[in-house]
Backbone:
């Protein structure tokens, strides 16, 4: 018998992820605070739940896909939270990007109630969520991951065990630190080219196969050149991840010079009113022109 | 009849480049200030010249591969410089990475003497120079590039016309700005992983195909994890390119926040005695440990 899944959080990422679980044949019971977002999933065959707790009732696995640490803490541990509806031996998998220490705290509370917990944040963005090709970074026990692997495989094509609880989140924050500096690299390189009258397309063609090459160069530079600021990943969400990364580094007394600078530059972009644009809009802050 | 080439500057890059020209069937006449470095080329069939000027005598094309703007200015324009030995209609190709404005100045002086000039800096490093797979970024007139294309093809596999004189150098500096921030990205991401007890190899495997992916992640991160500081590209040379990029940006009143920060961090690495190590040694500055 396939695991029954409770799925909480049907935003840009959660909606297609829940849909993929459904398509893979799992019975899915969904809940979202804005209940209208449940309709598309219910039309596709999901059951609708009436609360966080209700989404967990009768489910062998509960997945949460939310915005930030306080949301996840409230949805899982809060009064009428998912944990209060969980059966002993069930598994909660939080796929949001949150603080590693909050992930550890939730894992310990769950364990105290006989419920397993995985932190399993993802990379790959909306397109990865839709295509089921997310990379999933998992923290928890290997045994719990083994139990969850088939369900995760419906949403992602690469599942990596990173270590004990919190390690999935830690790895995700490392990923984000690399990403933001790769974005800044593209912004500064292209801004310099534009200021020098160098054709951006020609520059990209000349350098993208070499030492300057990156996913961000391939994917964001063309958007910057086209002045296309539509969000793949919004600046405000990038800021949230940077805040988590810098707090996490601060706990370790590790200076992150570049990530700290990137945070301030993204803040300048937000201050200019571009917080809901894609991260590629950072180039407008670098070159001081719209 | 194949063009006769005068080749000045037989360092880490120049030596294999001259050798590739020789192997492609060109007659090559070499000169290097430290004359002992000419021996290997002469053993392979090159003629030896006795001065910068002498290297240019009888050559249809003169190639320079040197360290910095003052060297190139002196070698080409100085008393007894290459230009003084050039025939009318010959072409000087400077493949060093220097200031775009110095490239423009040299091009104008050459043109005044009836000699064409290309700025044609390269990316691809020592391995690209040895393999003849450099990417060559060319500034000058398209006609001059057409005349030089076959010779350049002996040294590089990708030749891109960037625009008028100086444009090759401008494009190279854009490339370098992207590179240094991609390096910093890897340093900070891995330093955070190490401080959190995340296994570096596992992290690389999990993230390298995604949005954090870059040439630097593929090529420098494994060296950082192996604590291998042997230079692919030395920190002192990276600093030279950063100085050129920041001067160039300053002329355009363009702030390069990240590149400026990277310059200071590389300076800290130099101050720690790591200037002759590879750029991957920057991670030691980020994590404050050897």
Residues:
């Amino acid at each position: 018998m396939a695991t029954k899944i409770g799925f909480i959080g049907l935003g840009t990422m959660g909606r297609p992820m829940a849909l993929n679980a459904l398509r893979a044949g799992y019975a899915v019971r969904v809940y979202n605070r804005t209940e209208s977002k449940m309709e598309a999933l219910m039309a596709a065959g999901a059951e609708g739940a009436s609360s966080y707790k209700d989404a967990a009732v009768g489910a062998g696995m509960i997945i949460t896909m939310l915005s930030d640490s306080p949301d996840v803490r409230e949805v899982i541990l809060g009064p009428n939270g998912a944990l209060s509806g969980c059966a002993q031996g069930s598994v909660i998998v939080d796929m949001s990007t949150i603080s590693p220490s909050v992930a550890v705290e939730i894992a310990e509370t769950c364990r105290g109630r006989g419920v397993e917990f995985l932190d399993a944040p993802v990379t790959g963005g909306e397109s990865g969520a839709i295509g089921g090709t997310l990379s999933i970074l998992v923290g928890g026990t290997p045994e719990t991951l083994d139990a969850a692997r088939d369900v995760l495989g419906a949403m992602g094509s690469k599942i990596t065990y990173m270590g004990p609880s919190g390690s999935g989140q830690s790895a995700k924050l490392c990923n984000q630190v690399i990403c933001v500096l790769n974005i800044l690299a593209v912004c500064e390189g292209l801004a310099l080219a534009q200021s020098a009258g160098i054709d951006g397309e020609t520059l990209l063609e000349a350098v993208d196969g070499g030492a300057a090459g990156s996913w961000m160069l391939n994917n964001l530079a063309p958007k910057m050149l086209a002045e296309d600021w539509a969000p793949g990943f919004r600046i405000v969400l990038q800021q949230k991840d940077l805040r988590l990364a810098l707090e996490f580094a601060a706990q370790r007394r590790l200076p992150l010079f570049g990530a700290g600078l990137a945070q301030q530059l993204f803040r300048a972009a937000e201050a200019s009113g571009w917080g809901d644009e894609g991260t590629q809009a950072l180039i407008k802050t670098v070159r001081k022109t719209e």
Remarks:
- The mean pLDDT of chain B is 96.
- Residues 4-164 of chain B form a domain with the Rossmann fold fold (CATH 3.40.50.720).
